[in-house]
Design a protein that fits this description.
Structural class of chain A: alpha/beta
Number of domains of chain B: 1
Low-confidence stretches of chain A: none
Helix content of chain A: 25-40%
Strand content of chain A: 25-35%
Distance between the termini of chain A: 39 Å
Largest sheet of chain A: 6 strands, mixed
Order of helices and strands of chain B: HHHHHHHHHHHHHH
Low-confidence stretches of chain B: 1-15
Strand order of the largest sheet of chain A: 6-7-8-3-9-10
CATH architecture of chain B: Orthogonal Bundle
Largest sheet of chain B: none
Structural class of chain B: mainly alpha
Number of helices of chain B: 14
Number of strands of chain B: 0
Largest interface: A-B, 42 and 38 residues
Oligomer: heterodimer
Number of helices of chain A: 9
């Protein structure tokens, strides 16, 4: 399917002098999952933030469906891109439905509040994820897994074409990690373009068409997951011997031999 | 599936909401009547209603003495209306700032507006000693203080809302020290007591014309804050998340700070420094209607208006000599806030 987001020759530095990484070029396709892998502190989340227009790059360009991101308003960006942040704790305890309906903000006027139809869309999003029974629950009192699903529901209610997930499986138990990844896969199969950062090569191998590898301030590789995630590249990326094994069912898993 | 019952639960929440919204219209009207009846000179509620009806141009017949009319319309009405305007204004400002700075412990004075206004008023007292100049200086320096805090926070280039709160603390401390200097230089027999009384806050000298001066800017800014109340929900999740949801966080932040500063600087310029209202009332409102800004903002406005009418009523009636308002709002507000924290249902714990 088509390219919906492009990153070309992107360089970013928080202080304007020392780049976190430089010269990154990649494409995000509709209906596909792109995994961003890399050791701690290599700027995976920073790349995701640049894609969402939250950081202004020192050099290079992000375009969404052909439009330069810096020329777009927040509203236009939010209509195209939904961003699921890592775990956060809001100061005030809103109910889950109130959090989900915040996804409608990009579709309503500056001085408007969500309408009944916005609530229907929010409830629909929660029903799709099977969490409508959480609607009246206080968001701050939900578990990590529930909270992740509520944030996914908010992203669905946003009705955007691109989904950026910042380590969607962190803070989740093993079962909820798998459930989240299956959900991500399903959303991509329905036509969404998904980009997720992750610390687990297995998650990239099992659920994403393409993978980008970042280390030492540059893109170490970008392309079809199965081609890019070989033992040699992974070992170099994480700095220790890594084997990639193929299970009987054809799935691939990584094992570190430290 | 269980979805049917859930949907009715969501609707049930909306019905509950409308019950509150009726109370929020009724309570300020009741507070207004209470404020007009309550005082040293006995006035009956029926007399108050008749005088008010005539005042707004309704064709009513009835008998009351001219003293009653004077007391209600010229002594108590300006004062009660001022209490409502200032109480509502400070409370809605406090609620807005608590969301904007993601901190339930900030008051609308956090960016230094009260310190700036205090210095301005003191300067006005020692140089001109005219009400217009005192009010003007208080307003001006209130704005200058917040403006400096804002510019300072931009200078540091650091992100996050903490930096502007810290800048506000710095600017506040600076103007406090300037205020001390002015107090030190002021004539201790005459000007110094005026400065001290001004800082304690009072509505005793308020007149209708003072109200007319501040009504328009305060009213417009309060309407502005009410209009963006949905966006305050979103920005309470932090600037970055609000941006990803389609909110121009920087512009919203700037607009809210301007509106709150105009409201608080106007309020302080006519009443002196009335503390605690803008901190306590939003919490009380949050306990009643929850953290959703769509309900919290009107609730803070209504409750703040009622709260200050009651406190001001106590201030002018508890003893023969009037107690400065700022003293009472603190002595009532501080224990009340302690009790609120103990309740644990403040919606942000």
């Amino acid at each position: 399917m088509g390219v919906v987001l492009t990153v070309s020759n992107l360089t970013f530095a928080y202080d304007g002098v020392n780049p976190v990484w430089s010269d990154i070029t990649l494409e995000v396709h509709a209906g596909e999952v792109l995994s961003v892998l890399g050791p701690n502190g290599t700027g995976k989340s920073t790349l995701l933030r640049c894609m969402a227009g939250l950081h202004v790059p020192s050099n290079g360009q992000v375009t969404i469906e052909g439009n330069k991101i810096e020329k777009m308003s927040r509203k236009e960006i939010a209509q195209a891109i939904a961003f699921v942040p890592q775990m956060h704790t809001p100061v005030f305890s809103f109910t889950a439905i109130e959090v989900v309906v915040m996804g409608r903000t990009a579709h309503i006027g500056m001085f408007a509040s969500p309408s009944t139809s916005d609530y229907s869309i929010a409830e629909q999003a929660m029903e799709t994820l099977g969490i409508l029974d959480l609607a009246k629950k206080s968001y701050n009192e939900t578990s990590g897994g529930e909270r992740q699903l509520i944030l996914f529901a908010r992203a669905l209610a946003q009705e955007s074409r691109i989904l950026l997930l910042d380590e969607p499986t962190s803070h989740l138990d093993f079962g909820n990690q798998a459930r989240t990844l299956v959900l991500v896969r399903k959303l991509a199969d329905q036509g969404l373009a998904v980009v997720m950062t992750t610390h687990f090569p297995d998650h990239a191998l099992g659920f994403s068409e393409r993978t980008a590898l970042i280390a030492d301030g540059t893109l170490q590789g970008y392309g079809i997951t199965d081609e890019k995630l070989n033992p040699k590249i992974l070992s170099r990326l994480y700095g220790l011997p890594i084997e990639v094994c193929t299970l009987e069912a054809g799935d691939k898993v990584c094992i570190a031999r430290a | 599936m269980a979805s049917h019952t859930n949907k009715s639960a969501i609707n049930g929440g909306r019905n509950n909401r409308s019950k509150w919204s009726i109370l929020l219209w009724v309570a300020p009207v009741a507070a207004l009547c209470l404020g007009l009846v309550w005082g040293r000179y006995p006035v009956k509620l029926t007399e108050v209603l008749l005088v008010l009806a005539k005042y707004v141009g309704l064709p009513v017949t009835g008998e009351w003495s001219s003293v009653v009319e004077t007391v209600v319309l010229h002594v108590r009405l300006p004062r009660v209306l001022a209490a409502m305007l200032i109480g509502g204004g400070l409370s809605i400002s406090g609620a807005a700032f608590q969301g904007l700075f993601r901190n339930p412990l900030v008051s609308p004075y956090v960016l230094g507006v009260a310190s700036g206004a205090g210095f301005g008023a003191a300067l006005g007292i020692i140089i001109w000693n005219q009400p217009v100049m005192i009010q003007g200086c208080a307003f001006l320096f209130g704005m200058v203080a917040v403006g400096s805090a804002w510019l300072m926070s931009k200078f540091y280039r650091a992100s996050g809302s903490m930096i502007i709160v810290l800048a506000g603390v710095i600017v506040g401390a600076f103007f406090q020290s300037l205020l001390s200097l002015v107090k030190y230089l002021a004539d201790p027999d005459d000007k110094l007591p005026m400065i001290v009384y001004w800082l304690m806050g009072s509505l005793s000298s308020i007149a209708m014309k003072d109200l007319y001066t501040v009504l328009l800017p305060m009213g417009l800014c309060m309407v502005g804050l009410l209009m963006v109340r949905w966006r305050l929900n979103v920005i309470s999740f932090g600037d970055e998340e609000a941006r990803t949801l389609g909110v121009e966080a920087g512009k919203l932040r700037f607009g809210v700070v301007i509106a709150v500063t105009i409201i608080t600087a106007s309020a302080v310029s006519v009443s002196g420094i009335v503390g605690w209202v803008g901190l306590v009332v939003p919490h009380l409102a949050r306990m009643l209607v929850g953290p959703d800004y769509r309900r919290l903002m009107p609730a803070s406005l209504a409750l703040g208006a009622c709260y200050l009418v009651v406190i001001d009523g106590i201030a002018r009636n508890i003893s023969a000599a009037e107690i400065p308002l700022g003293i009472l709002t603190a002595t009532v507000g501080a224990p009340f806030f302690a009790w609120l924290l103990g309740k644990g249902r403040t919606g942000w714990a």
